[in-house]
C-alpha cells in the first residue's frame, strides 16, 4: 500500500508540475504579448522612417544591411560609436574570467559565449569538471557559514532560549540578513553603477542568484559607462557568497 | 580530540578549495580567451568594413541617423525581435513560446532568447521561479530515483541470474552510464543536426549546455523561422530535458563523490559516515536537485533494505 501511495504521489507531482508550467505560460503570454506587439510596430515604423529618409536605398539592400547588422549583434559586436571599439575585445581577461565563472556556477548569461568549435568543446569539458568543483566549493563555504549560525544558536541557548525557538530565530535571521545583503543592497549598488531602476536591480539579482541567468540584464555592459577597475571582481564575489547563502538556507 | 582534528581539517580545506576554484576558473578564462579572441577580431573587422563600405556607397547617410538606426536595431534585437523580412510574422510570446520560457525559468536553464520586458512580467517571473524551482528540484529528484532504482534492479537481477558478485554492479553502472550518454548526449545531436541544421558538434554543445542548466541561449531549438518542425519534435524535447537533466545530475554527483572522497585522506569510519551525512544534509548546492537525490537515495536504500554497497551516493558506506 505504501508503494501505491508512492506512485500516486509521483503521479500527482508530475501532474502538478505540468499544470504549474501551463499556468505560467498563460500568464507570461498575457503579460508580454501586448508589449511585444508594440515593440514590433515601433521597429516597423523605424524601418519605414529610415527608408523614407534615404529613398535611394532599395528595400533589398536595406534587408541585406539589416541582416548583416543583426548577425554582428548576435556575435556581440555592437556597431555603435566609432571604430576605436575594435581595440576593445569582449574577450579580455576579466571578461573571460567572469564568463568562466558563469559557466561553472551554471548561471550562463549568454551575452558572451564561445563561437569557435574549439571554444565550445572546451566549454563543455570545462563545465563537466567545473560544475562539481563549484558545488563542492559552495558546500564548504555554506558549511563555514552554518558553523557561524550554530555558534549564534549556542550563544542563545546558553542565554536560556528553547531549542525550537532558536532554530526558527536563526533561520529568520539568516533569511532577513541574506535578503538585505544579497538582494536589497546590491540592487541599490546597481542602480548607481548601471543606471537600472531598483526593481530591475532586484530582478537581475534574483535571476543571477537562482542561476537562471537569462542575460537580458548583465553587469558591465552598458555602453558609454565607465566602470571602476575592480567592479566585475566585486560582483563575482557577491555572486559567490550569494550562492553560498542559498546553499546555507537549504542547509538550515 | 578526533572531533577537533576534523574541525581543523575542515577549516584548512576552505582556503585550499578556494585557491583551486579560482585557479580553475582562471585557467578556463585564459584558454577561452586564446580560443575566442582571434575569431572575434575577425568578425569585428568584417563588420567595420561593411559599415564603412555602406557609408561610402551612400554618402547621404549621415552619422546620427545611422546611429539611431543601429540603436533601434539593437533595441529590437534585445527584445527578441528580428527586423528581417515582414515584421508582421508570428510573435515570440505565443503559447508555445511562453511555455518554453516557463520551462527555461524553472529548470534554471534560462536561455534568455526570450525574456520579460514588462515590469509586471519580471515580477511575475521572480515569484513564478521562486516556487517553480523547488518544484522542479523535487521532480528531478523523483526521476533520478526511478533511474537509480531501475539500475539497482538490473544489477540484482544479473547477480541472481549469473551469480556474479561485485562485478555485476560495476558492469551495470558502466552500462547505465554509457546508455545515458548515448541517449542524452550523443544521439540527440543527430536529431538536432537534421531538424535545426546545426553541425554535430554544435548539437552536442547545445545538449550539454542545456542539460547542465547553464543555458547560454546562443542555440535554442525550434527558433529558426525558416524551418518547419514536426508536431512530435517539441514533445520529444520536453521529455528529453527533464530526464537528461536528472541523468546528468546523477553523473555530476558521482564526480562530486569522487572529489570529496579523494580530498579526505583519513579513512576512519566515523569520519566517512559523518561526511556522508554532511552530503546528505540537504544542502542545496546545485539547482539540479543534487541534495534531494542525496537525501532520498540514502533514506530509500536504507528503507527498502537494499543493503547497497553499490549505490551512487555513498561509496564509503561499504566499509
UniProtKB/TrEMBL annotation, chain A:
GO terms for cellular component: plasma membrane. It is found in: Membrane. Gene3D superfamilies: 1.10.287.70. Residues 89-145, 170-251 form the Potassium channel domain. GO terms for biological process: stabilization of membrane potential. InterPro entries: 2pore_dom_K_chnl, 2pore_dom_K_chnl_TASK, K_chnl_dom. It is a multi-pass membrane protein. Keywords: Ion channel, Ion transport, Membrane, Potassium, Potassium channel, Potassium transport, Transmembrane, Transmembrane helix, Transport. GO terms for molecular function: outward rectifier potassium channel activity; potassium ion leak channel activity. The chain crosses the membrane at residues 12-31, 118-138, 169-189, 201-219, 231-250. Belongs to the two pore domain potassium channel (TC 1.A.1.8) family. This is Potassium channel subfamily K member 16. It comes from Calypte anna. The lineage of its organism: Eukaryota, Metazoa, Chordata, Craniata, Vertebrata.
